[in-house]
Amino acid sequence: MVLFISTVVYFGEEKGILSLIALFGAWAVVEAVRLFKAFPLNMLLSVVAALLVVGLPMTAFAYHLRFEPDNPPIPFAVIVVLLIGTKSQDIFAYFSGSFFGKHPLAPRISPKKTWEGAIGGVLGSGIMTLVFVKLWEVDVPLNPFVYGLILGLGSLLGDLTESKIKRKAQIKDSGQVLPGFGGIFDMVDSLIFAAPFSLLCYL
Asked: For 177, what's the count of Cα atoms within 13 Å in the CB-facing half-sphere?
């Protein structure tokens, strides 16, 4: 999977990234439709719900390509910073929660998440965004640390949203495409709010 993504991005450049966004977005929509049908909803309502939850943020993610700096030190630096800031929340939240977590954040939605993990995750997003924005000299619309906090908060909300959907559907993972990680929807859930939040910062 990593080799496939790297090849498409390297040879396809902007078109390659857009193709991957379309592929993963469509795949995630299919998984989300299956989740929503377990509510139960009819097919039409399931598709509409899946497009709102997955389609809109993936469209916002693709739209970020318009905000690429004129001469970025690395290709598509804006997209990379968005991903780093968003996914850092997952990593820092895991370690913060593992070492310091005591107070449940939303036990009915995700029993393992704690306030300590959530705060550590959002702060981690701010720090990592600041580091890479300064390292790569990427133009972002706000103070890099504040921008990272917004990405981290969006990532946390997206993760909780998908957890709520899966709990309602009584399904642990959205799919089995990525062994050990679940489905594509499980991998892009952090973009549900992070991508639109980021886009609003640029507008």
From this structure: 15
- Amino acid 61 reads F
Side-chain half-sphere exposure of 168, counting CA atoms within 13 A: 15
Burial 183-200 (b: 16+ CB within 10 A, else e): bbbbbbbbbbbbbbbbbe
Residue, of 112 and 53, whose pLDDT is higher: 53
> Nearest 5 degrees, angle CA 36-CA 42-CA 48?
60
Cα–Cα–Cα angle for 145, 148, 152, rounded to 5 degrees:
140
Q: Is the predicted pLDDT of residue 72 greater than 70, yes or no?
A: no
pLDDT over 90 for what percent of the chain? 46
Residues 23-52: what's their mean pLDDT?
A: 90
Alpha-carbon span 115 to 87, nearest angstrom: 18
Phi, then psi, of 145 in degrees rounded to 5:
-65, -45
Q: Is the pLDDT of residue 9 over 70?
A: no
As a whole number of angstroms, the distance between CA 52 and CA 55 comes to 6
Domain hosting residue 179, numbered range = 2-202
The residue count for the chain = 203
Give the CA angle between residues 177, 179, 182 to the nearest 5°.
60
End-to-end CA distance of the chain: 33
The total number of structural domains that make up the chain: 1
